[in-house]
Amino acid sequence: MTDPLTTLSGTLDAVWAQLARGASDRDAPARHPVLATAGRSGGEARMVVLREADRDGARVEIYADRRSAKVGELVAEPRASLLVWDPAQRLQIRLRARFEVLAGEAVAPLWQALPGAARALYGGRPAPGTPIPEPGDHIADPAAHAFCVLRGALSEIETLHLATLGHRRTLFRAAEGWQGRWCAP
Question: Could you tell me the pTM of the whole model?
Answer without folding.
Answer: 0.94
